[in-house]
Amino acid sequence: MFFPTIYSANTDERHIVKDKYTCACGARYNVFTMLTRRDLRKISFKHYKEVTCPECKSSIIYKE
Q1: pTM of the model
Q2: Does residue 63 surpass a pLDDT of 90?
Q3: Terminal Cα distance for the chain, rounded
Q4: pLDDT digit string (tens) for 7-56?
Q5: Among the four residues 16, 21, 44, 47, which has the most C-beta atoms within 10 Å?
Q6: For position 47, what pLDDT does the model report?
């Protein structure tokens, strides 16, 4: 299963995007009120197993 993800250089982790401002774990990746095309290019669809943030990973229930 693929999810929209964003890479955080500060924490060196890949997070699952929840909405246009926050990740599934509550971390903010966009602090501006306007979402630009440049911000959207940072979001990439990755497989569930490539997500490295443990809180984001636990928020999605995955059964093999």
Answers
A1: 0.81
A2: no
A3: 10
A4: 988 889 999 999 888 898 888 888 787 888 888 888 999 998 899 999 98
A5: 16
A6: 92
CA-to-CA dists, residue 3 to 31, 32, 39, 47, 59, angstroms: 21, 23, 17, 6, 12
Q: Dihedral of CA 16/44/48/60: which sign?
A: positive
